[in-house]
Amino acid sequence: MNGGIFLKEQIYFGTYTKKTSQGIYHAFLDTDTAQISTPQVAIAVENPTYLTTTDQTLLTVAKEGPLGGIAAYELANDSYALTDDSLVAGANPCYVAFDKKRSLVYTANYHKGQIDVYRLNDDKTLTLCDSVVQTGYGPRKEQDVSHVHYTDLTPDGRLAVVDLGNDTVSTYDVSAEGKLAPVSIIKTKAGLGPRHLAFAPDKKTAYLVGELSSTVSVLDYDSTTGAFYLRQTVSTIPDDWSEQNGAAAIRVSNDGRFVYVSNRGHNSLAVFEVLDGELKLIQHLTTHGDFPRDFALDPTEKFILVANQNTDNATLYTRDQETGLLACCQKDIPLPEGVCVYFK
Prior knowledge:
This protein is mainly β and 344 residues long. It is built from no helices and 29 strands.
């Protein structure tokens, strides 16, 4: 409740469309009743596995048969009209981010080891500005080549690129024309398999998920040089867990006091408290489903919503803003092949 008004927050879900899903789904969170409405199809599109929005546009990963890339849809009046797409032969990207200041769109292509930069024009069309292909590999079978998994802005406007295949986090300068220039690179421990990065509100601390190692690392970021430095690495799973697991999504609370990571295999959310600049595990709890690829804090940060890809369901938790701890309040929300959770 906010000033006597019940809040209904908009949620978009990205999915795979390998089984029954039809594309991007839309739902609402009622913050008064702590309930999610049943997700409904908003946009029919193939494999929209990651998405973001601008003020008037929804940008999503997209696929059309043998072609992969991104697509832009009009958000005004919930019409979801396609304004443009950029699809080329080969696999679609796995991450998309928007740079409001420069009107640029960044994508990470896992299968191609490629970073693409597009301009989102005033008429909502897309123009390719730059492409960079990374190289290298790691010691694990999943690291045979470069696998770019994340491309998003640092607090000072550089582009941070996380590569699961070659165990690196790279920093690029971005010109007004959307051209990339390498600035710095940090090599993680071999086999870490870095996946996603999230900055703390202090703009100097970042948290790096190691998918293949089931870890989260604390990194110090130097904005004068664009360089990252390792401070700490901790496990996201219990010491006695010996079965398969892959750490996936990561989120940081707006006050910087808590960090959350999803575990695919252990099928849990790991909750960490930030104490003296380092992470301390304070909770593990089930996601009530299999393969929690993504989750998000809602705008009030009183809730966390997680999507379980393999069991076609989502789970909602209440969040204690003082302790950071979570409690399940709604489970078995029907969501086919959910892999991205995004609060508008």
